[in-house]
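input
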Amino acid sequence: METAKKKILVVDNNPVILKLMAEILRREGHDIWCADDVFGCLDILVEVTPDIIFIDLVMPRIGGEDLCRIIRNMDNLRHCYLVIVSGIAVEEQLDYRQLGVDAVIAKGPFGEMRRHILQAVADTETPRKTSIVPELKGAEHLHGRQVTRELLHNNHHLRIILESISQGIIELIDDRVAYVNPRAALFLGSVRERLLGRRVAEALPQPLLEAMTATAHAVTPETSLPPAPLQLGGFQVVIEHFTVDGKSPSNIIMITDITERRQMEAVIEAANLTKNLGYVFSGIRHEIGNPVNSIKMALSVLQRNLPEYDRETIALFLDRSLQEVSRLEYLLKALKNYSLFERPVMQELSVTEFIGNFVGLIRDDFAGKKIKIHTILPGDPLTVLADSRALHHVMLNLITNAADALDETSEPHIVISAERADVQINIKVDDNGRGIAETDTQNLFKPFFTSKTTGTGLGLVIVRKMLLAMNGRIGIESYPSIGTTATVSFPGS
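output
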């Protein structure tokens, strides 16, 4: 029976095989398209719906096995006849039925291959038998090669590792997706077969593309900020983007799920902030009460004497009330919790004004604990770029640590100072407490390390993380039985 004219696509990275197969099939009167890799194949499939596709298993970028899965996930190609033509068909043990493959031909003597290729085309005239495992054709005169088996085994081993790890891995080549492991597909809310081979801008969501651009432009691990968390598919993740080497066109995107870690950090941060605020809550109540009473008294006097007072006296009372309102605004802003998961709102802050307001907030409460607070501030203005809420959180943490160290000190005091040192601004918190042993100072910024009998050991970890987000740094100097100095540094504004 004569075979009807078919539309046939041949995908093979070997130019000799590609040319020979195209000539054989054209002589039989079929329309032929050729591609030397999966990317080229997918470009053709945008314009053409073939009746038959011949696929090599071993190809660069994306292999024939993945191409079969991609094709079977395309609605218009579910009934396309797929034929594997491969040089490793003898050694490679694949579940061809699961891949949706209709025929398998081993690469060997070309006369033998020609017969099986034409037979595969003729077989398309009969209904597809999807329930039958296709038989390998053309393997009678071939022998399995031990080296090939070992290489395939190693390849399978590496693939199992990549597909089992908890991190998402995406490989990009020439602005297209060449590899996606199952975890990455989960983060992207898709399946691998619908991502492989697609243009990056089409396959990846906009937030991930923006994160990739940001990480690609990061300067160095020492000077760049930690990667910002990103929401993907209901997960909180961080993105790392790097090239394989200087010559390879391959780019790797690594996606790490930090959802549980961030939830735990949120709990610890809340506990840490609550502990620190315990030192100043009574002072805050007192500080809020004072301006409220002042405003109430001023307005009451104005209400009783409004007809008698001249404009200057009325203006004086109003100015006094507005000053108290400003104090209230500051206190409420200080009480608003800054979260580790927020992007800092960077504003130009007067260091002198900030320290003055901060000390006013805590002085009475510390006086009740018999701890004296002193400030040493320069005459010239010092300004930094920072988020005032985050800096409050930092200072609360440091002042709390200082107060804890003064438990057994006969004349406890804390000095808060500011100074310009070359191109940076330093804010220092000094105490005359028990100090920290030299062996312990090396571990201060390690999670869960604490020299206290109680505590999470995460206060300074949180402080450093907040300061890094504001381009700030922290250093600790301490001498046992003498005291400790915590120095917060910012670039000069």
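quick obs: Confidence is low (pLDDT under 50) at residues 217-225, 276-283.
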